[in-house]
Design a protein that fits this description.
By secondary structure, this protein is an alpha+beta fold. The chain has a domain of about 110 residues: 60s Ribosomal Protein L30, Chain: A (2-Layer Sandwich), CATH 3.30.1330.60. Helices cover about 40% and strands about 20% of the residues. It contains six helices and seven strands, in the order H-E-H-E-H-E-E-H-E-H-E-H-E. Strands 3, 4, 5, 6 and 7 form a five-stranded mixed sheet that branches. A two-stranded antiparallel ribbon has the order 1-2. The radius of gyration is 28 Å and the shape is globular. It starts with a helix and ends with a strand. The N terminus is likely disordered.
């Protein structure tokens, strides 16, 4: 009995969703005045609506952006101090930013592994993001590019039960938003 009901419901839903839904033409709306509705409810009048303010697309050409994920910066357990290999990676990122025209924003996202309490990990991820930002500022990257966030243990990139997985979760992700 339940199976028959579910099958019938599925057929009704399928039949209903396969029917095309009529779409109004762009910038047009259907208007029915009260006299028309009383006489013939099926007849409608279609009128063009002109926007009061020109759209932003008409005023300027659309911008095209590319979201580029850069090499992650790894950290030691319970540390926010940059390691020597991480500084070399950050130097390459500085060279990339200098050589790339149109970098609009640089997102710095601090992360931790799951060891420790959530509040402490949130603070640690903030400190990690700040240490990367500080290093990039010292290398001449403009402060106006930065958007930094700490996510604590909320965005793991690997499993928590292996040593290597925990290491990869102790990182700062960098993403560049480039205007093409």
């Amino acid at each position: 009995m339940i199976f028959a009901f579910l099958l019938l419901s599925a057929l009704i839903i399928t039949e209903y969703t396969e029917q095309p839904f009529p779409q109004p033409l762009a910038n047009q709306h259907t208007i029915i005045d009260s006299e028309q509705k009383a006489k013939t409810p099926a007849k409608t009048q279609t009128v063009a609506i002109k926007p009061a303010i020109p759209s932003a697309a008409a005023q300027s050409p659309a911008k095209r952006f590319e979201f580029i994920t850069l090499t992650p910066i790894l950290f030691d357990f319970d540390q926010s101090k940059l390691r020597t290999p991480s500084k070399k990676v950050l130097d390459e990122i500085v060279a990339f930013i200098s050589a790339t025209q149109g970098v609009e924003r640089l997102f710095i996202e601090g992360n931790t592994d799951h060891i420790g309490n959530t509040h402490y990990n949130d603070q640690l991820s903030d400190r990690r993001a700040s240490s990367v930002k500080k290093y990039l500022l010292e290398k001449g990257v403009p402060e106006t590019l930065f958007s930094e966030s700490g996510y604590g243990e909320m965005r793991p990139v690997d499993e928590y039960w292996t040593r290597n997985g925990k290491q990869r979760n102790r990182h700062v992700s960098l993403h560049a938003l480039v205007n093409k």
